[in-house]
Amino acid sequence: MTAKILIVTGDAAESLEVLYPYQRLREEGYDVHIAAPARKQLRFVVHDFEPGFDTYTEKPGYTWPADLAFAEVDAGRYAALVIPGGRAPEYLRNDPELRKILKSFFDADKPVAQICHGPLLTAAVDGLRGRRVTAYPALEPDMQSAGAAFQDAEVVVDGTLISSRAWPDHSAWMREFLRVLRAKAPVT
């Protein structure tokens, strides 16, 4: 039976941070589902870095359908979790159904890949305390407040938790996530 991977996201997620792992994991042979607050056409954004701006810029990105609503997710059926960034984690962290999903992955010590602002979700369920992580660099104080040791690095692996700063780090992020995933939930 093919291992299933869950991506949790919503509107205003960074396009590349959803679609790159989605396609890369499918390429490896995993069955990948996208869950959101509701089954609907999600609207992603593109964050870019432009000269003269103190922070990233945001433009409309791709649209993509959510396969499941958070309330429909049976976390026990999934081998691993992917948490993209963008602005979505800012409001998703308040969703009680999503918080149950996140907690179940951490309680079972299943592989979790998070990137950019995604660690705001894992912080909301106290999943970062005592761990080493990276995130979008502006989140360093948030990571420290969540009890994590922040490292400004391309990728940080702490057991089954794999984190990266932003989409420019995708190759290292997915390389390390797949290394952990293949050991914990190989494609059959």
Automatic annotation (TrEMBL):
Name of the molecule in the record: Peptidase
UniProt cross-references to InterPro entries, sorted A to Z: C56_PfpI-like, Class_I_gatase-like, DJ-1/PfpI
Family the entry assigns: Belongs to the peptidase C56 family.
UniProt xrefs under CDD domains: GATase1_PfpI_1
Domain DJ-1/PfpI: 4-178
